[in-house]
Specification:
The complex is a heterodimer of chains A (360) and B (306). Helices cover 70% and strands 3% of the residues of chain A. With 360 residues, chain A is mainly alpha-helical. Chain A is globular. Chain B has one domain: ABC transporter involved in vitamin B12 uptake, BtuC, CATH 1.10.3470.10. The chains are: A mainly alpha (360), B mainly alpha (306). Chain B: It is a multi-pass membrane protein.
Chain lengths: 360, 306
């Protein structure tokens, strides 16, 4: 009989090693999944995790890593603040969409004007869009006690419909021969989030993601607000006694995560994606949830986890075209990773004891 | 715009159909939450049920076997959730989310070869002359057996929770797992059973979408219905009949907006399609002031040593 015995202190060593164990377990079971699908598991895993980094065409894929990783890290950093405090924003996908729409709308409004101020204004608008969208669940939670999980999630569907409406209506390219979708911002220089060094994949979104990591690290480690977040998550009652205002914390955590998700959307639409289209969003807002947990809600961890997740996206694309591995298999692979992570997390907080329970 | 194009009889019969997936998912989740567990994986279990049911119905030619497979598929996925939350004591919110993410991926993977196929049709029950009664006949007596099963399930859950010992134990576990444990009840086992029941119900609800309501398979076709079901449980204050009422309300709204789209109302399609989600939020806001009906142990992890 295996029993669980609560540790007096969570184990630090295991806290660091369980994500690695989860990744290894996912390799094994993911490999099995690929084998079931009739692919050589070793070849599939090698294609996904080795090719993009060290393969023949790595020079092309490495920049992609930054392009896919930046929005994931940016969103996950915001989410992690709330998750730490038990405030669950799972509508980052919607905030990402709204940030993109706001940012693109401002850029398109200036078309075809020239000016250095256009891009900064778009950044501001993108952040505002995401922030405002996240403030809806935040405000409703603070004012009426409404469940933020459900409201933020519902708003994803609303945002998706709004995106469809925008790309077919207001933001549609007037010179687009009737096709849905906005003008391509990549062809409008003042609004283009271009690579900072050609061919590096480094765009302003990557810079923003790195700043967000540092910001979150300092906030959590040094600032009083970071302390409030951590205490609220671990002991809500103690937090209240220590003078934490729960309402302000909700507004801050949801607002910040919305703002960062909005920025991610804005950098994506003005850079790698280029235009507002009906299927602009590809699920970064949901994958970022996995990234946040995989990174153990720690800024540095999230940076690494974001890189790994980006790798599965890129490697998955390669495996799709080279080996015919279905895209959904990668999604299952990512979901599996989260399962193992959550399951193994028990080891951080509990000891396994083998033997019969003592009489209490 | 031509509102007269909406046939009131077809509309009512249609919204009963639209409400049925919600009834299944909501009543299942209601039982889970009554046992003190919050499973946010409803969407994932529904979509898994939708594809399991669809694939089985197509392969065997029997829609009823499809529904059985959907219940098994939903329950199998919920078993993962039960393992995470009851055995490894993982956070319920995170586990539920992971279930949804995993279920969406898994269903897309299974469903690849089923896109664009028509499933076998489940016939309506033959009520004989009852179906010929004006107005009532076409509304109430022209449906398939699963729709009636949904209503029977609500009645069954209500009766079990209210009148039986099993229902009392389930509620006790949900209100205070420590007290229930002290009385000698196996908290984890009871919760696991409730989670499996919830998974089976969600699976059935999902299959109702893919086999009857739509009927075909498309990726992510549940489109948030699982989440609306979660909201419905709050709306219903954890009372079965209120959940049924709520499901009809949402079914009605969904059907109405579809009919309005069809009738060519001046409101753009996208804004009509938003409406069920926005109304869910409004309902949540109106009802969230009173949380007293929620099971007291909802969402809390139980470990005997605590």
């Amino acid at each position: 009989m295996i029993r669980l015995e609560k540790r007096p202190q969570p184990s630090r060593a295991l806290s660091l090693s369980t994500p690695i164990m989860a990744v290894l377990a996912t390799f094994v079971f993911g490999g099995l999944l690929f084998a079931v699908l009739g692919k050589d598991p070793v070849e599939a895993l090698q294609t996904i995790f080795w090719q993009p980094l060290f393969g023949e065409y790595a020079f092309y894929y490495r920049p992609q890593l930054l392009i896919k990783g930046a929005p994931l890290v940016l969103i996950a950093i915001g989410l992690s603040l709330g998750f730490k405090a038990g405030i669950w924003n799972i509508g980052a996908e919607g905030q990402y969409i709204m940030g993109a729409i706001f940012g693109a709308a401002v850029g398109l409004a200036f078309y075809p004007a020239e000016g250095w101020y256009i891009f900064p204004l778009m950044v501001f608008a993108g952040a505002l869009g995401g922030w405002a969208w996240a403030m809806i669940p935040a405000f409703l939670k603070v004012r009426f006690g409404t469940n933020e999980i459900l409201v933020s999630l519902m708003l994803v569907y609303v945002a998706e419909q709004f995106l469809a409406s925008m790309s077919l209506g207001l933001l549609k390219n007037p010179e687009g021969y009737g096709f849905p979708g906005s003008r391509n911002l990549q062809q409008y220089m003042p609004a283009h989030n271009a690579e900072l060094f050609a061919g590096s994949g480094m765009h302003w979104g990557v810079v923003a993601a790195l700043i967000a990591v540092i910001f979150a690290y300092v906030l959590l480690a040094k600032h009083r607000l970071g302390f409030a977040i951590r205490v609220t998550g671990e002991a809500p009652r103690a937090a209240r006694f220590s003078g934490v205002n729960p309402a302000r914390l909700v507004l801050f955590c949801l607002g910040t995560s919305g703002l960062l998700a909005g920025l991610a959307g804005m950098f994506e639409v003005s850079g790698p994606s280029g235009q507002i289209t009906i299927d602009f969003n590809v699920g970064y807002g949901f994958t970022a949830i996995i990234v946040a947990f995989l990174g153990r809600l720690h800024p540095i961890g999230i940076l690494l986890a974001g890189g790994l997740m980006a790798l599965t996206y890129i490697g998955g694309d390669i495996a799709q075209s080279n080996l015919g591995l279905p895209a959904a298999a990668i999604q299952v692979f990512q979901g599996m990773l989260l399962f193992f992570l959550l399951a193994l997390d028990v080891l951080t907080h509990y000891r396994l004891r083998i033997g019969a329970a003592e009489a209490a | 715009m031509d509102l007269s194009a909406i046939n009131p009889l077809l509309f009512v019969a249609g919204f009963l159909v639209a409400a049925t997936p919600l009834i299944f998912a909501a009543i299942g989740e209601l039982v889970v939450e009554k046992s003190g567990v919050l499973n946010l994986g409803v969407e994932g279990m529904m979509i898994t049920g939708a594809i399991c049911g669809f694939a089985t119905a197509v392969e065997t030619g029997s829609p009823l076997l499809g529904f059985a497979a959907a219940a098994v598929g939903g329950a199998a996925l919920s078993l993962l959730f039960a393992f995470l939350t009851q055995v490894t004591l993982a956070n319920q919110v995170a586990s539920g989310l992971s279930l949804t993410l995993f279920g969406l991926g898994l269903s897309a993977l299974i469903g690849q070869s089923y896109v664009g196929i028509k499933p076998p049709r489940l016939g309506d029950i033959d009520f004989g002359p009852l179906a010929d009664i004006p107005v009532i006949g076409p509304i109430l007596f022209t449906h398939d057996i699963i729709l009636y099963l949904g209503i029977a399930l609500v009645a069954g859950v209500w009766a079990v929770l209210k009148f039986t010992r099993a229902g009392l134990i389930l509620r006790a576990v949900g209100e205070s797992h420590d007290a229930a444990h002290a009385l000698g009840y196996k908290v984890k086992r009871i919760r696991t059973a409730a989670i499996l029941f919830g998974g089976a119900c969600a699976g059935l609800g999902g299959a109702y979408i893919s086999l009857i309501r739509v009927p075909q398979w498309t990726e992510g076709m549940t489109a948030g219905i699982g989440w609306i079901a979660l909201a419905l449980v709050v709306f219903a204050s954890w009372k079965p009949w209120r959940a049924l009422l709520g499901a009809y309300l949402f079914g009605g709204i969904t059907q109405l907006q579809l009919n309005l789209q069809g009738a060519g109302v001046a409101i753009p399609v996208e804004y009509l399609a938003m409406s069920p989600y926005i109304i869910t939020i409004i309902v949540l806001v109106v009802l969230s002031a009173d949380k007293s009906a929620a099971p007291a142990s909802l969402g809390r992890t139980f470990h005997a040593s605590n």
